[in-house]
Amino acid sequence: xxxxxxxxxxxxxxxxxxxxxxxxxxxxxxxxxxxxxxxxxxxxxxxxxxxxxxxxxxxxxxxxxxxxxxxxxxxxxxxxxxxxxxxxxxxxxxxxxxxxxxxxxxxxxxxxxxxxxxxxxxxxxxxxxxxxxxxxxxxxxxxxxxxxxxxxxxxxxxxxxxxxxxxxxxxxxxxxxxxxxxxxxxxxxxxxxxxxxxxxxxxxxxxxxxxxxxxxxxxxxxxxxxxxxxxxxxxxxxxxxxxxxxxxxxxxxxxxxxxxxxxxxxxxxxxxxxxxxxxxxxxxxxxxxxxxxxxxxxxxxxxxxxxxxxxxxxx
Amino acid sequence: xxxxxxxxxxxxxxxxxxxxxxxxxxxxxxxxxxxxxxxxxxxxxxxxxxxxxxxxxxxxxxxxxxxxxxxxxxxxxxxxxxxxxxxxxxxxxxxxxxxxxxxxxxxxxxxxxxxxxxxxxxxxxxxxxxxxxxxxxxxxxxxxxxxxxxxxxxxxxxxxxxxxxxxxxxxxxxxxxxxxxxxxxxxxxxxxxxxxxxxxxxxxxxxxxxxxxxxxxxxxxxxxxxxxxxxxxxxxxxxxxxxxxxxxxxxxxxxxxxxxxxxxxxxxxxxxxxx
Lengths: 315, 275
Ligand SMILES: Cc1cc2nc3c(=O)[nH]c(=O)nc-3n(C[C@H](O)[C@H](O)[C@H](O)COP(=O)(O)OP(=O)(O)OC[C@H]3O[C@@H](n4cnc5c(N)ncnc54)[C@H](O)[C@@H]3O)c2cc1C
Ligand SMILES: Nc1ncnc2c1ncn2[C@@H]1O[C@H](COP(=O)(O)O)[C@@H](O)[C@H]1O
Known about the structure:
The structure holds two protein chains of two kinds. By secondary structure, chain A is of the alpha/beta class. Helix content of chain A is 27%, strand content 26%.
């Protein structure tokens, strides 16, 4: 049976939902094997085994992560050369795309980003031009390197399985690379990761510095908090919360937009959401053109009322 | 190696000519390529040009002998992206134009652009945008670094240069989800910048007039030493098999808040089984 290589880069203490999705997807094509970067705690090794992963490749050199992207790409190339997978699946982060990009050159292999579906013959479906076209594309040369968006498959239940075999792989980092000389951890919000969340409540300039109504509604729905660039630029919330062309592209089940006008760059990141609700004072806001349910009103009254109602119905 | 304290910086800024996102954008033709009428200099490449201009200004300005060359690859019309860059402040322009380039994927684009950079000779910095606003893959900068065997400093949200005895070094900040990283490299290097790094300037009248006298070179694939089969549709490692316009989202129900909109929002969620 074919093997499909899944790249897992520094998950921390436990696998993320997106990693489980990649493993599930890989399992539909053959045996999943893993190229693992970072600390591998026992709990993760056990879960990988339980998800049917028989082999986990790890870099021999401890310092691959100190060389921006080049170190990880060199490792991926070495794993592909030694394991000859039918395809490589990665997450859809900027860094994962770059790892695939460089490994693609080293391996003379095509790269396709932003996959939302992968057919039996490895035909990839993705949307382009800010969601206005659905495209089917295929890697025609080399080992397909595919970066896959989150939320596109249901995670399979983990079975039982032995611990995977750990294989150490020697790789080459080019001499001429940039070095990472400092890392500052960002504060964790405790909320779901934006790209993985099923529900997102996003706030824009209309929140006027106060994200609490947005956060409280997100928490009532178990969702993540997002923002427009106007809100992140103003420093009201972390830049990593930005949704849009130069922020995150999200496709949740539900996107609630509050105090956001709906500029083209904002829409580019969220218009593939299944259901969109917009709350905005101005009935002419372009966000209403794409809303399934729009409320012309003040977010400071509408959101808290909705939050209270959700809590009431749940109790 | 040349003595860095004596010579100016040679900076290449990559500028892509892309369809304007303010209009409807289309994929057309048998080869399923993007329609390039109504195109502009990619908004995200304006940040790359601004970063180059600010580096020059921070290190002695034009008088110090620094030189910014705006480079684009694309069909005849793409030259307008370079012209715009000249108006904003680049010193020279290069347009790689060749029929064989049509349909290039990231691998082909990086192959061709790497060849242009090598052709230009002693380049200290290649600065690009974080993504093209049409392709949106963010693959090209990393692939350029790989092909040119230069340090990759991508998604920089700040960028500083320091002049050493016989080389320049660079410090950048790269913001990820979990970490904010400090990245260091020695020039030459490939850098991509985000829209967080600066506020791009507009061309002014003086710049528009001056641009007319700036050197603008058109190069063919042959001149940069790339065989036609290495790029374009023929050389692509990926193929687009179909492209279908998605029906635009239609507007749903819009209500005005009469005091109970929050409750109606929850009714809507319940009806959609989203609670
Ligand atoms: C290169 C580039 C990249 C960009 N990338 C992104 C990106 O990734 N993501 C992004 O979002 N933007 C991006 N932008 C910016 C984008 O063009 C818009 O400027 C931005 O999205 C506007 O944010 P906003 O809707 O929050 O603010 P505004 O456009 O100012 O809208 C605020 C809205 O809030 C409403 N409002 C005010 N008070 C209330 C209230 N009390 N209750 C309800 N409604 C209220 C107003 O009616 C208004 O519609 C980018 C721009 C450029 C040039
Ligand atoms: N045809 C091109 N001409 C000039 N620069 C390009 C071209 N394609 C990509 N680039 C540069 O590479 C960056 C990333 O593009 P991409 O990888 O396509 O998202 C862009 O912001 C440009 O700076």
